[in-house]
């Protein structure tokens, strides 16, 4: 799926100019005296650095994304950064271990189903998700908003500065939030009840339109394509808007 660094270097060497003579070994002249002569010319021109050639990165090999980090002390997003790098240099944290989807914008696909605002998810999930959502909307299910791909470090351990250290499932495009205005995220909530504290989104009430229920068509439909509802996850949080491959 991703180009290796060695492949990128090979591709770049194949684009070196001929400048006469015979070629071998992906574009480098085999004659050592001739090669030394060529290197000396490049040094003189000031364009040869550390005996390495710049990699030629095509659009297909490029990874771009914008990310942020959640500050648990200030309770806001900080360190907004635009990242651009060859795919071959992606780190383990930038690729989802379960699906192979990455944080790259190039891996995401746009879904547009009026009257919903368009959103993006990983291309591996997009076809199945779009089919289910179209069916649910045609059946009159009250889906009014969906949030998909959004890159940010919003989970995992907190570092000494109070910053989260891991990407969420949204960062890989393998999670969606459905109707966040009526399906909030709660903590202190081992089981849902009056003691649960709403920390994001709107109040969840299974009797109101737009709020999700375990026995409802929306939850059942999304679970049928392998997503897990955050309203039923173990632990001290209940994320009623959230669906992902793990539920978190």
Biggest β-sheet strands, sense, barrel: 4 strands, antiparallel
Low-confidence stretches: 1-57
Total count of strands: 13
CA radius of gyration: 25 Å
Report the span from N to C terminus: 25 Å
Structural class: alpha+beta
Into which percent range does the helicity of residues fall?
10-25%
Instruction: Spell out the helices and strands N to C.
Output: HHEEEEHEEEEEEHEEE
* Count of the domains: 1
- Give the overall average pLDDT: 82
* General form: globular
Number of helical segments with 4 or more residues: 4
User: What fraction of residues sit in β-strands?
Assistant: 15-25%
Strand order of the largest sheet: 5-8-13-11
Notable features of this structure?
globular; single chain; alpha+beta; three-stranded antiparallel beta sheet; 248 residues; 13 strands
Care to give the gist of this entry?
With 248 residues, the chain is an alpha+beta fold. It has helices spanning 5-13, 32-45, 126-138, 217-223; strands at 62-71, 76-86, 108-111, 119-122, 146-147, 153-158, 164-167, 175-178, 185-187, 197-200, 228-229, 238-239, 242-244. Helix 3 (126-138) runs antiparallel to helix 4.
Structure description:
Helix content is 17%, strand content 24%. With 248 residues, it is an alpha+beta fold. The chain has one domain (62-244). Strands 5-8-13-11 form a 4-stranded antiparallel β-sheet, with helices on one face. Strands 10-9-12 form a 3-stranded antiparallel β-sheet, with no helix packed on it. α3 packs antiparallel against α4 (217-223). The longest helix has 14 residues, at 32-45. It is globular. The two termini are 25 Å apart. Residues 1-57 have low confidence and may be disordered.
